[in-house]
Amino acid sequence: MRLARTRRTLIAALFAPLALLTPTTAHATTTAAGHLPVRHAPGETITLPVRDALAALPVADESRAGYSRDKFRHWTDADKNGCNTRAEVLLEEAVTAPEVGAKCALTGGSWYSPYDDRYLDSASKLDVDHLVPLAEAWDSGASAWTAKQREAYANDLDDPRALIAVSAASNRSKADRDPTEWLPPYAGYWCTYVTDWVADKTRYQLTIDPAEQTALTARLAACPDQPITVTLAH
User: Fold this and answer.
1) For 65, phi and psi rounded to 5 degrees?
2) Angle at CA 105, nearest 5°, toward 176 and 126?
């Protein structure tokens, strides 16, 4: 089950110091430079410091040729419970639970938008953001995926970093830009944002371009080199 972001934050704060000491089910073996020596299999879980994870991402130029949002089918209702992916994220990340009506219409409730450090009192004021935007994923390797793989990416409820409920204003200011061009308005969230960006790209074995690598390296230099645990999707 997808953990609510507030619960995840508390759990991370309590157990992050132990993550360096406690082995996970499956570890990534890294070289001295931090690069993964072999391609790991889908479904495998790896844990490594975020700077090593960044160093392990392949660097390549990007291409948006052929991109269309329609090639990433969303929002779907994978479990057929009447609530699509957008609604599932809003329900999980609500600070105060909304009422759920017919066709999963959400009434009332409240949410926290970490991008701009705001509380919002209506689901209509929020967007569910793909942390790594669909266009960026396409540029970074998703153009070679199957339609089903792109659909899974666009509706990923298995990794809570992939999708995040944020204010519509902040999401639309971001659009499809990567961290070379955009960071959340709230600077207190920058370290979490770039760490989660690296985790998401690691999960999907997406590439980074040279400018993106430089921007992420510079930003992470000012952040804790915390371990990330990722279950590989590809």
Assistant:
1) -60, 125
2) 30
E strand or H helix that includes residue 47: strand 45-49
pTM: 0.85
Q: What's the confidence (pLDDT) of residue 40?
A: 77
**CA separation for the pair 103, 174 (Å, rounded):** 29
Residue 107 pairs in a beta bridge with 99
What type of residue sits at position 148? K
Instruction: Give the residue carrying structure tokens 């479904």.
Output: 43
Q: Where are the alpha helices (DSSP H) in 32-186?
A: 50-56, 85-93, 134-139, 147-154, 168-174
Helix (H, G, I), strand (E, B) or coil at 230: strand
Secondary structure class of 18 (helix, strand, coil)? helix
| Closest among 186, 191, 184, 182 to 223, alpha carbons compared | 191
Alpha-carbon distance 226 to 47, whole Å?
10
Q: What token pair was written down for 152?
A: 């899974």
Q: Are 77 and 84 in contact (CB under 8 A)?
A: yes
Closest of 224, 37, 47, 70 to residue 150, by C-alpha: 70
Low-confidence ranges of the chain (pLDDT < 50): 1, 3-4, 6-37
